[in-house]
Specification:
alpha+beta; 7-stranded antiparallel beta sheet
C-alpha cells in the first residue's frame, strides 16, 4: 500500500502545523458519514529557475471556496493564507515536487442539515503521474455521471467520487486501464477524475460544461490551444463519434496530460507521437515547469 506520510511528515490543520501521525479527527463528522466535504488536488513543481512553484494555486483555492458555497459548507478561510500554508507544508517536508491536497470537512452532526462550521486540512505527498506514463486502454463505463439536477456536479465534492471509484474499478476488473463515463443523455462526459479531449482533422474537441467537472487542467489545455493556434471546439459527442477520432487524451491535475491508446479495444488511428495531444502534453509540461515552448521545434 502506498504510504502518504511517515513519522516525520507535517501537515496543516485549522491554522496549525502538526505531525501527520499525531493529527486526529472526530468519528461523528458529517464528512465521514455522508461524504459532505470538498477538496482540491494541486501540484507543485520545481521550475526551470530552480524555484518551487504551485501551479495555478489561486484558481484551485477559488474553486475550493466555490465548491463549498455550492453545497452550503461555510468557508471562512483566507485563500492567500492557505496558499502560504501550502508553501510552508512543502518547506517543512522538504518537498520540491509534490501533490497537495486541501480538504474542507465538517464537524460532528448526524442530521442532514447544512453545516454551520467547517475545518480545513492541507497535506502533501510525492506522487508521480496518477495514470502513469503509458498510453491508456480505456473502456466505456456502464456507470453514468450524476444527473446535474441531482447534484452540484461542478463542485469538487468528496461524496461525488464514489461514482469515479465504481467506474474505475469496473474498468480495471475488465482488464482496462481506466473508464470513460457518459452523461445521462448518452453523450461523452469525462473519465474518473479527468477531462477528455480528442483530435480530428486538425481540430481538438472536448465536452462543454454542464455535465462535467470543468477542470483547471482542462482550462489550461484550452489556453494552450489558443496560444498555439490549435482550433478547439466544445461540443457534445457520442462514443461512435469518439471512435472515429484520430487521437484522444485525458487531462487532470493528478493525471496531467496522458494519451489514450484505445477505446473499447479499438485503437486510435494516429500515432500518439504525431498527434496534437502530444504537442499539448509537451506544452503543458513546459508551462508547469516555467519553460519556453516552441511548437515548431517539437515537430522538427
Amino acid at each position: 500500500m502506498y504510504s502518504y506520510y511517515n513519522d516525520n511528515t507535517f501537515l496543516y490543520i485549522n491554522g496549525e502545523y502538526t505531525k501527520a501521525n499525531a493529527a486526529t479527527t472526530d468519528l461523528y463528522g458529517q464528512s465521514l458519514h455522508y461524504g459532505y466535504a470538498v477538496f482540491e488536488g494541486i501540484r507543485a513543481y520545481k521550475t526551470a529557475s530552480g524555484e518551487v512553484k504551485i501551479f495555478k494555486a489561486k484558481e484551485h483555492f477559488d474553486r475550493l471556496k466555490r465548491s463549498c458555497e455550492l453545497i452550503h459548507i461555510p468557508y471562512k478561510f483566507d485563500n492567500e493564507e492557505l496558499i502560504a500554508a501550502c508553501y510552508k507544508v512543502l518547506e517543512m517536508n522538504n518537498m520540491e515536487e509534490a501533490y497537495i491536497r486541501p480538504l474542507v470537512f465538517c464537524p460532528p452532526n448526524m442530521t442532514l442539515k447544512a453545516a454551520s462550521e467547517s475545518q480545513i486540512l492541507i497535506c502533501a505527498w510525492e506522487w508521480g503521474a496518477y495514470l502513469g506514463e503509458k498510453l491508456l486502454r480505456v473502456m466505456t463505463s456502464s456507470y453514468e455521471r450524476p444527473n446535474p439536477k441531482a447534484f452540484k456536479i461542478e463542485s469538487k465534492s468528496a461524496g461525488l467520487y464514489v461514482n469515479s471509484i465504481l467506474a474505475s474499478q469496473e474498468a480495471k476488473e475488465k482488464g482496462y486501464d481506466e473508464a470513460l463515463l457518459l452523461d445521462m443523455n448518452g453523450y461523452v462526459a469525462e473519465g474518473p477524475g479527468a477531462n477528455i479531449f480528442f483530435e480530428k482533422d486538425g481540430k481538438i474537441y472536448t465536452p462543454p460544461a454542464g455535465n462535467i467537472l470543468p477542470g483547471i487542467t482542462r482550462a489550461t489545455v484550452i489556453e494552450l490551444c489558443q496560444e498555439l493556434n490549435i482550433p478547439l471546439e466544445e461540443k457534445l459527442f457520442t462514443i461512435p463519434e469518439l471512435k472515429e477520432a484520430e487521437a484522444a487524451f485525458f487531462c487532470g491535475t493528478a493525471a496531467e496530460v496522458i494519451g489514450l491508446d484505445s477505446l473499447d479495444g479499438q485503437p486510435f488511428g494516429k500515432p500518439w507521437a504525431q498527434s496534437l495531444g502530444k504537442v499539448l502534453q509537451q506544452a503543458y509540461k513546459a508551462k508547469v515547469l516555467g519553460k519556453a515552448f516552441h511548437r515548431e521545434a517539437q515537430l522538427a
